[in-house]
């Protein structure tokens, strides 16, 4: 399924967020917290402060979208999230709000805005929100009794959603090439393993007798290969695991644990790593080309797979 990065086009004045909507099912899947005055230990004479705190936009989180028959995901980078937050305030839109993206509301104002910059000590943790670094958080003041009583207190709304215009940043031809090659390699390996299993179950008497079948495999790759796979997994987790297919993630887990890999897998490691090396950018820790390359063992994996295939007369 296609993944599209949405960005703010600086040359287009219309790009940016126009309003904040209170909704029942926020696309970012993070509920806000309805704050009452008592939680701030205010004087007894004060009534509820009617404040809502929640995530407005989370970076690198795939959000499902459907346009007619086309299904795809969108996401925003940390840089775009920060730009969107800044532009929203610069344009003076903090009083613009809607209900379920349909009905314009009055009396709702964004009174606090911040970007999460610390994993442990950010203010969002006070409210039990374990959102990632780079998330745009906001506090909305509800000076509308009808909205507070009918929507907030009854639980009809559970989170924030944004309204605005963004430009589509489609993958570059290079990125498409990486994803296409990686997908093809992983699909080939999945089909190969499936055929092996089918063959074993169908014709091997040892399997039918309950005996163990061992395929030719090797685990003598250096620690650098495992470390690269672990690093790729860590980086992928930071971007909500949006890079690589499930087979690729399983391959990384195998390498990270030092488990043996088959000759066919070694061939695919060499094939992918040798073709995708030019797209690996050590300085870009969020690029799928970089992450996927590490998941397959990185440069150490390329050197080892080439050496192993030569040793086995397979190259």
- Helix content range: 25-40%
Structural class: alpha+beta
Number of strands: 14
Overall tally of structural domains: 2
Task: Report the principal-axis shape.
Answer: elongated
Task: Indicate the proportion of strand residues.
Answer: 15-25%
Overall pLDDT confidence:
77
Which value, in Å, is the CA radius of gyration? 25 Å
Largest sheet: 4 strands, mixed
Question: What are its keywords?
Answer:
four-stranded mixed sheet, elongated, 315 residues, 14 strands, 9 helices, alpha+beta, 2 domains
Describe this structure in words.
The protein has 315 residues and is α+β, with helices and mostly antiparallel strands. The chain has two domains: 2-169, no CATH class; 173-311, no CATH class. Helix content is 38%, strand content 22%. It has nine helices and 14 strands. The chain has helices spanning 78-90, 145-152, 173-203, 205-208, 223-238, 246-256, 263-276, 288-295, 298-311, and strands spanning 2-7, 16-23, 33-35, 51-57, 63-67, 70-75, 97-99, 103-105, 108-115, 136-142, 159-165, 167-169, 217-218, 261-262. The strands form four sheets. A four-stranded mixed beta sheet has the order 5-6-1-12, with no helix packed on it. Strands 8-7-2-11 form a four-stranded mixed beta sheet, with helices on one face. A hairpin with a 2-residue loop joins strand 5 (63-67) and strand 6. Helix 7 (263-276) crosses helix 9 (298-311). The radius of gyration is 25 Å and the shape is elongated. The relative contact order is 0.14. Mean pLDDT is 77; it is low at 36-47, 171-176 and 196-214.
